[in-house]
Amino acid sequence: MCFDIGIVVCGPNEALVISGMCYGSSPAYIVGGRAIVLPCIQTIQRIPLNTMTLEVKTPRVYTARGVPISVVGTAQVKINGASEEMLSYAAEQFGGKEVSEILQVCLSTMEGHQRAIMGNMSVEEIYRDRKTFSQNVMEVASLDLHNMGVSVVSYTLKDVQDEVGYLASLGQARTAQVKRDAIIGEAEAKKDSTIAESYADEQRMEAKLKNDTEIARSKRDFELNKAIYDTEVNAAKAEAEMAYALQAAKVQAKIKEEEMQVKVVERQQHIAIQEQEMLRREKELESKVKKPAEAEKFRLETIADAERQRIILEAEAEAEAIAVRGEAEAYAVEVKAKAEAEQMAKKADAWKEYKEAALVDMMLKVLPQVAAEISGPLSQTNKITMVSTGGGPIGASRLTGEVLDIMASLPETVKQMTGVDLSKKLANSG
Predict the structure, then answer these.
(1) Is the pTM higher than 0.85?
(2) What is the DSSP letter of 33?
(3) Of 63, 175, 201, 318, which has the most beta carbons under 10 Å away?
């Protein structure tokens, strides 16, 4: 076992005892686990924790009264792995031993204690009070086995036998006693039965006579009571009929009242339904007419506000544009006026320089344009109807003459406007 190296594993039904280096005088106990064991410097032992069944036989043992009997008991024992103290006891007692050797030690201990308890009790006590016998054996054996790390799980008395017929004699005596008691009991039962039967007959006759008397008395009372009851029944019947009629009338009145109440409730329900309908219609009107109208009103007000803002903005923009155009036109007029004034000044200066010759020259240039403007309307005329009085020219010469008359009046007009006599100037220039 010195050369068991590496990881050592044990199941839940066994324990590992590891001793040697690193553990000192206190070995390690591992139940259902694993451990690392170093070779040659540590030792490992396995202790079984399985429950072991013992058949404890003690043949021909003399009891407290000297009667030899044989007893067979069954015990369940196991090494207690839940207590490290008991594991240490078990390791000390059974370390390195096989299961069979452990069983033999436990069996010998149980047999010894079972024999001792048998010697302290009588056959009757062992046979009749098996529970006490089993408890005594288990308590005494548990003390010794505990020091070995073993717990007694259970102990039961399986069989009791004897070779001298003591138990059979006890059975026979008990059987005879039982038979005697049975015969005596049967006789006493028959006696009691006869006495009881006679007493029962007496009681029966007495009861019969009393019963007949009671029957006659009951018949008499019945007839008397019947007459009284008939009178009371008839009176009660008449009262019942009258009460029935009265009750029927009350019931009818109650029914009428209930019917009126039902009608009132129906009317109230009808009114409530109408009110609910009115509320429903009002809500429907509000949802279908009032709300859309408010929405349309809000929409129109919003459009109107937007249109008003637009008009205001357009008006403001137009005012600004007009103001700008006015300023531009005023500036243009001012510039134009300045230009015309400057032009007129220049013309005045020119006229001063050229004087009358310049005026004559200008008038001569303008006269053809004036003649064209005068004859322009006539050229656009589709038809002219002329009425002659017989004196003067007629036809186209009349129209030409009127144009020439207008042209002939121009020198006089110029003379009146400028003081220059064009006819005279033209004659002088010729």
Answers:
(1) no
(2) S
(3) 63
